[in-house]
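Hi L.,

As promised, Ribonuclease E:
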Amino acid sequence: MLINATHPEELRVALVDGQKLLDLDIEHTFREQKKSNVYKGRITRIEPSLEAAFVDYGAERHGFLPLKEISREYFSQPEQPGRKRIQDLVREGQEVIVQVDKEERSSKGAALTTFVSLAGRYLVLMPNNPRAGGVSRRIEGEDRTQIRQHLQMLDIPDNMGVIARTAGIGQDFEALQRDLEYLKQIWQAIVEAAEKAPAPFLIYQEGNVVVRALRDHFSEDIGEVLIDDESAFQAAQQFMTAMMPKVLNRLKLYDNDIPLFSRYQIEQQIESAFSREVRLESGGAIVIDHTEALVAIDVNSGKSTKGQDIAETAFQTNLEAAEEVARQIRLRDLGGLIVVDLIDMESPKHQREVESRLKEALKLDRARVQVGRISRFGLLEMSRQRLGASLEEASYEPCPRCSGTGQIRGCEGTALHVLRLLHEEALKAGAAEVECKVPVDVAVYLLNEKRLPLLELEAKSNTRITIIPDPALLTPHYEIQRVKAEATPAHNERTNSSRNLRDLPNRPARAQNGAAQAALNPLTAPPPPSVLPPPKTLPQSPQQRDKSASKTATPPSEGILARFVRALVSRYEPVDSQTFLTRALGEEAIPPAAEPVSGDVETKASGDTETPSGRSRRRRRGGRRARARRQSGQDERPHDGNDEADAAPPTTAMDLEVAPPGREVRRPKEALEWSDPASSPEPPADEALRYPATRIPRADDWH
């Protein structure tokens, strides 16, 4: 037996056979152990539906006391035949002496009992349960007969019961009687202490792990006990002097420079007890998972190649896993229902051998274990007595991020969940603002990938939505707070100032310092441009108008999309049905008839041919040449006022373009060619959407 007590916060006891770790017990001073402690408590509530009472014994959560665990001495009326009701037997506010039978686990309170049991070295005394008593189930044969004879000779009070432990095998009558007297003194001290003070308070506390280890684990098979701490050695020496003086010479103080557990090479074996997966020598492995209902152990063959075929390999791996499962159950102190998923075996003979190997390995366990048969699904069920908190419960704490599940929701899933909650909160009546604190990665995803839904939600609900990245939060945690319209004046002022900023049409863009850096500051998604009210223009004084007129306004820079749309729209013009048909049929357009002016006389030159448009061919040719000369800048002939010579010829459908009312604009076909933007003047404002325009955009302008 090795006892490591160099660190007062953690005391470890290990049973070692050579260099193989057989059993392990760890106690932490920062975690109070309540099992087997005796308290004086008060019944606070009676629950008839559960046939149990809840007892305040001084802990944070009240203990659970079933009716079957209540001694008759606490009944308010004599026991009667038939079914008993707990509300008729005990009452609220009644004080009782209880002992912790099971430790608190997760959300469950401690299980209590009024049948106190005091464990000694050889005997277990049950002072208020005379019906209990007997011999341990592990004692068999002649040893069982001998110890029964010693129990009949002991001076046991009528209202008490005694159970003989396995450590009492081979002990004489005097040793058993001395142990009984020691336990009777402890019970008498408990009764006297309970009468001195009102409930709730602690009456009797179990000894530390050193005393418990010597009392529960020490046997004749243990050759020596090594302790590496002076104070722990003195406590063990005092206990063995009083209870086991014959084996006091086996107790030794370890004072070597090499750590005690490292000397026997068991540190690695202890760490395997904290691991989820335990490797087997053959190459297989067992995986241990804890659930609320049971402990699941899965056996995997892995790289095991022990057998000649697949059936033999499965059989040999299961045999090796059976011994390791029994060992891990002891090391981890697992209790409750345990299910082992073995590798499938077709042969019933192989199944029986695996069951026998497991039962043989469990004989070293000091807890009661019930083992079932391998089912047709390859599952083996067993139930083990819960002696205390398991190694995982005593050493581990639930993960604050995943709450002990081992998995968390991803960034995208958390962001979508938060977005749905924001939608729900924003649509509630009276919501003026919704603030959401989320992890940085979730905030980056919302502001980059879900900005448009946030804008639409703000416009739809008329609610300000603020996304606040919080580096202290981790996925999947978040905080959402809804602020009503009737908030404090300071808050209303902050909200109103933000809304005034949102009314500005052109807000300065935020500096791009990276997605994560930008997300560290609280950001609010701006509203969509379609819902913005038009900017208000304040009246200017004459001085301000003069200043603004003297300054050249800088046109806003166009983006790629704006340039593409402008280039696309500039190729087309709205036309009427007559012009469309004329262009489609390839005929000349018929301009609208001019209204005659009073006093004017229409004259025709000789030789001119009348056209459908009422104009002469000569006039059309002369007008076309004159217009071409004017377009190229070569026509320097002074205008003599002759309307006949300067009149433009009739224009075809390809020459006609849309003009303002009362004016007809014609352009020669020779001008319809690509022009250089540097040499061509910009078109007037009213010709920006006409085709063909004075300046046709080049192909690279469209990009």
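The first strand starts at residue 2 and ends at 4.

Thanks again for sending the construct details.

K.
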